[in-house]
What does this fold into?
Amino acid sequence: MDPEVKNSNFSEIITLRPLEVSDVDNLMVWASDERVARFCPWEPNTKREQGLDFIINRAIPHPWLRAICLNGKPIGSISVTKNSGNDACRGEIGYNLAWEHWGKGIATKAVKMAVKAVFEEWGPELERVEGLVDVENVGSQRVLEKAGFYREGLLRRYVVFKGRSRDMVMFSILCSDVENCSL
Amino acid sequence: MDPTSRITLRPFKLTDVDDFLKYAGDKTATRYMRWNPITSREEALTHLETVAIPHPWRRSIGLLDDDEDRSIGYISIFPGSGDDRSRANVGYILAAEYWGQGIVTAALRIAVSTVFADLPEVVRLQALVEVEHRASQRVLEKAGFLREGLLRKYGYCKGEIRDLFIYSLLSTDQLRI
It folds into this structure.
């Protein structure tokens, strides 16, 4: 059963579940939005086929990717990468949320739910979930801080996308930082 | 004579195998490496053939000795691929008998002065160092790297999960003297 959290202010229920092909039109709402794509390596989607391609070839085979649903309707997505070998103790979180739902604490809730779920599913091997946030993406930095992540430092010119070098802030949460950690 | 004036950097050759085995097989020298000591000449030859020689940027640290240049360690700079190709990981090793003389610092400074031209897509060099490995932290600092933070439980080193300091040097940084 996927975890659910009630938003006490609005009687709205946030759930996480795998993405399906039938979610494509909802996905296009955020995937086509420049404001959502701003700090992502991808350009806003312009064609439904791109959305279908993402769901079939990236989302469904992904080791851990979920739709963020508000009262059952997908309004974003969240994922955690899985590493192998010497890097198996850490996973990287990423998420997107439709613009109209920003500022209500939904991303923070989804992050908390995802972190709890992956530590349960991949523990004891997974001990660290990290997030890399563009130094200009203050909103996302706040999301991770509110979700209990620690800011570890600024990694200069860490990645290049959309033709520019980006300084990224590294955040992490350890299994031992989370309540009821089984380690 | 200052040993750092007798240092050269060059690609590996198969004929380095016996010198390579001396430090690659040494527990002390390999303590903070993520791989286990190499114990046989065959393994050493295979490593040179399949890893060291085809490597995008690995240089033997050579000590000039009677016109011969003996490998006493190496510097390894490994760029990422795809979206990560602007970033390269730095590693190094030195035979234990040469520690404490500034050799790796000197070699790293030479490496840094040429690597950005050799690997033009790389804008960031980074190194991950264990918290206890203070000698390595000093090498990086003296070579002009900046410590950016502590990454908690970042990776496995020899079977244990470690906290690692992350250091970086950018193509745009000026080399500190």
Notes: Chain B touches chain A at residues 34, 83-87, 123-124, 126, 146, 148-157, 161, 166, 168, 170 (CB under 8 Å). Chain B has one domain: 3-176.
